[in-house]
């Protein structure tokens, strides 16, 4: 993998910069210095990635990658190390992006970082061979719209997906239709269900919707992502496929500002 020259190698300088950019959610190793060694989840996200690293193609030579909600860039760096020709990483939080840019500089890795929300991915104007959408869904007020926008605008083949899940791990068989007055499995633990968080969950006001397993899998299928692997409890490797336009119109609802722009 072609790399850029490392411009920051002094351990003391790295430690000082890590402290000034903190707190960190990704525990990266920058020339041997850890960014979040006391992480409440342990060596995160490395300990999670260890469960599914072999399910992602080891050779991404010539491929393009979009990392949505990149945080400090852990997955972006991993994909670049696998030879990805180009990695674009977006996040809404400028602090995370400052961390990611610093980590890229220390490691000599070239990543295109942009401050952007998932709602604006159409502005990228291209589709990617691999889309990473990890740890974002439950932070969104409109999660299904996000999946539809990814499918419509930026996904071409594979999507690596993860969401926090709560509730039952069971998945009940759901019929394609039910009569209005007939019994339906709505109250069974394994029926697709989203838990709405009005205020906060785990002291975080950006946690909005937490699905159960059945709901995650149903949402992915409904948005045009076929599940090819489920290597870790919350992680799915999916493949893009076309979806038919339903009678009530396209799945993907465009932001109002895009419709307004078309009339200018």
Topology readout:
Layout: H1 11-21, E1 29-30, E2 33-34, H2 46-49, E3 64-68, H3 74-81, E4 86-91, H4 94-107, E5 112-115, E6 128-134, H5 143-153, E7 155-162, E8 194-196, E9 209-211, H6 213-222, E10 225-232, E11 235-240, H7 256-262
Largest sheet: 7 strands, mixed
How far the N terminus sits from the C terminus, by CA atoms, comes to 44 Å
Level-2 CATH architecture = 3-Layer(aba) Sandwich
Q: How many β-strand runs?
A: 11
Structure in words:
The chain is of the alpha/beta class and 264 residues long. The protein has a single domain (11-170, 184-262), classed as Vaccinia Virus protein VP39 (Rossmann fold). Helices cover 25% and strands 20% of the residues. The protein has seven helices and eleven strands. The chain has helices spanning 11-21, 46-49, 74-81, 94-107, 143-153, 213-222, 256-262; strands at 29-30, 33-34, 64-68, 86-91, 112-115, 128-134, 155-162, 194-196, 209-211, 225-232, 235-240. It has a seven-stranded mixed sheet, with helices on both faces. Strands 1-2 form a two-stranded antiparallel sheet. Strand 4, helix 4 and strand 5 (112-115) form a beta-alpha-beta unit. Helix 1 (11-21) packs antiparallel against helix 4 (94-107). The protein is globular, with a radius of gyration of 20 Å.
Briefly summarize what is shown.
This protein is α/β, with parallel strands linked by helices and 264 residues long. The chain has helices at residues 11-21, 46-49, 74-81, 94-107, 143-153, 213-222, 256-262; strands spanning 29-30, 33-34, 64-68, 86-91, 112-115, 128-134, 155-162, 194-196, 209-211, 225-232, 235-240. It has one domain (11-170, 184-262): 3-Layer(aba) Sandwich (Rossmann fold), CATH 3.40.50.
